[in-house]
Amino acid sequence: MSIVTVSRFITSEEADRYVEVPFQVASGMERIHVSVEVEAHGPGDCVIDLGLKDTDQVRGWSGGARTEFYVELEKATPGYVPGFLVEGEWCVLLGTYRIPPAGCTVMVKVACTLKEGRWLKGDLHMHTVHSDGALTLTENARIMEELGCDFLAMTDHNTYSQNLAYPHETGVVLIPGMELTTNHGHANFLGVVKPVVDFRATSSEQVQARIREARANGARVVLNHPHCPNCGWEWDWMVDYDWVEIWNGPWREANRKTLDWWHGQLCMGKRLIAVGGSDMHRFGGYVSHSSPTTWVYASSRTVDGILDGIDTGRVFLSYSPEGPVMELSAGKYHMGDVVPMDAPEREGNVKLVVSGLLAGDEVKLISNQGVERSCVVYNEHSLELFGELAGRSFYRAEVWRYFVEVHEMLLASVSNALYLD
After folding, report:
1. Ranges for the Polymerase/histidinol phosphatase N-terminal domain (predicted)?
2. pTM assigned to the model
3. What is the C-alpha radius of gyration for the chain, rounded to an integer number of angstroms?
4. SS3 content of the chain, % helix, strand, coil (to 5)
């Protein structure tokens, strides 16, 4: 982040004008935040209006209503226009509406945030009043923001109306979505406002057609809760999907079956990305927002940055936004990557780093050969485990925790796989 502070003294002769305070925007920025502090000198009214101009046009105006604002690629403070942050000279606009006889000093602070990789967390499966959910879009977004989450996909059943009604004031990145809901299986379409023209599908051929249409429109396809006893995936598994939801809502037997199935797919050589989602409809039965939480290493805090990040497989899941947090690597390679046969890292080890642990947690490092390392934590907040790479086709990790609410060891965190060519 680059921060520039400019002090501008404004005389009474400059009243009733528009003063420009220039600043430079470098390439690759994803956020501009501007704040001002005004100090009046002597008696008299002092009112400074506020606005923003990019290299070509005015990007927003809030008058005397605000003393700060932000502009991002997809979001902005009301009164300002989001979009591409072009490189070049921008200007903070100061409207000198009222200036005291002795003048005033305006302290302008501009912070520019570079678009770069970082961990983001959120929920990829949630419902609202646009289908059978109890909460509005605004209520869901507010709760996610209070939890410190970065993104949310509203995946109402067989409709896209929620994607046309997103609250723009929220700081959470809102991912357009729809849950294709049939009598024999559900799938999320993520990333486009209107993935299909007609959701209705009563045969395997029609399901295949809906998925092809959604993918052609740019959606990511997720097979949801495939082993749920009430609405599991009973269609042909040979469909063109991107990710599988191995963790749906509170941890239960259906999730365990999907985890085991996913591990079997990895052992057979399939490189399948695992995601999770709360499937939140209403409070009750330990169901809550962002439980589980999907963590993704994203290139930007945008819809495309998040979805592209999930595509890389650098993703892990935790039971809550508080973690546990994990990273799996072999040298410069991370979870989701494929370590080539001739890479120098093949002579070394895989490294698992987990933080946010509690006493009694059990950490497992798992490969195609089974559980390679297992460690029960007694007092450490963080832990490192290592495993040999030779003879393995992948590694992944799990953290299990005893929850007194249900008197049972449940999954607390699970990573995607690091693959070996």
Report:
1. 122-184
2. 0.90
3. 25
4. 15, 45, 40
